[in-house]
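so my prof wants the structure for this chain in the tokens format not the other one, which i didnt know existed until like an hour ago. anyway here's the sequence
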Amino acid sequence: CEGPASWFVEAYKATGKLDRAEEAYRRYASQSEGDQSGKDALWELVEVQKERKAFRSALDTLERILASGDAEAALEATFRKGDVLLMMDDREGAVAAWEGLKALSPKNSPFRIKGLINLGEEYEKRKDDCAAADVYDDIGRNAPQGNVAQAAKERAKAFRGAGGGGGKAPKGKAAPADEEPEDLDRTQVMPS
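here's what i got, hopefully its the right format
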């Protein structure tokens, strides 16, 4: 959103009137359907809906973004869908969303890599060493950051050893803490 409309929305957000901010983004997205500003409004709408804990509405908006046909938006929307489902305590749904990232391209997208890291960690919690190793192999092949790729390869190797009666599963995370694939806490499509 740009111009006077965005000022009103930001004022609503600043004063805690998130219901009014949500409605303003919803109207703006509908009026600007197909324009970049309309697409941007949808991403902002998801964030407001998450703040309001209107998770079902956020999922509906993410489905609308997925239906747009934009490959990069589909990666981000699928990643964020997993996060929203996790916020709803729907671990099965989150896993299914992140599993959907496996087939999407580009394979080295930060959203895909971070979603696969989340998926690998969920498999670890379930003690599914083979599935975790497969996911970490994928990350190792496709992560653009060397440290993330290397850590994932080592983790996959360790899980293959753990599942096959050999070594012990590693502790920690797939990506070193100082080398997470980009900061995905905020929507990447929207400027800060």
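also thought this was worth mentioning. The first helix runs from residue 4 to 14.
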